[in-house]
């Protein structure tokens, strides 16, 4: 999931490399259809532009349907996911 999001986020962040710096941790939930719900920044040392860009992109990412095995393993749905990126 993190790699899929980063693939979409990378080109957006590359538009303003001079603004990159710090770290960003995003929390979100994924339902069985692969839709992202309730994305939010849970910790950051990055600037507001990086935060806003990350949330905007996360909200638009299309994920594949969640495998039934993952739902069974987690025991509930939606599944919580956190990802952290560090920018230099």
Can you offer a commentary on this structure?
- The structure is a single chain.
- With 88 residues, this protein is α+β, with helices and mostly antiparallel strands.
- The protein has a single domain, classed as Fusion Protein Consisting Of Minor Coat Protein, Glycine Rich Linker, Tola, And A His Tag, Chain: A, Domain 2.
- Helices cover 38% and strands 31% of the residues.
- It is built from 3 helices and 3 strands; from the N terminus they run αββααβ.
- The chain has helices at residues 2-14, 48-60, 68-74, and strands at 22-30, 36-44, 79-87.
- A 3-stranded antiparallel β-sheet has the order 2-1-3, covered by helices on one side.
- α1 crosses α2 (48-60).
- The protein is elongated, with a radius of gyration of 14 Å.
- The protein starts with a helix and ends with a strand.
Task: Provide a quick synopsis of the model.
With 88 residues, the protein is α+β, with helices and mostly antiparallel strands. The chain has one domain (2-87): Fusion Protein Consisting Of Minor Coat Protein, Glycine Rich Linker, Tola, And A His Tag, Chain: A, Domain 2.
List the helices and strands and how they pair.
Blueprint: H1 2-14, E1 22-30, E2 36-44, H2 48-60, H3 68-74, E3 79-87
Antiparallel strand pairs: 1-2, 1-3
Helix pairs in contact: 1-2
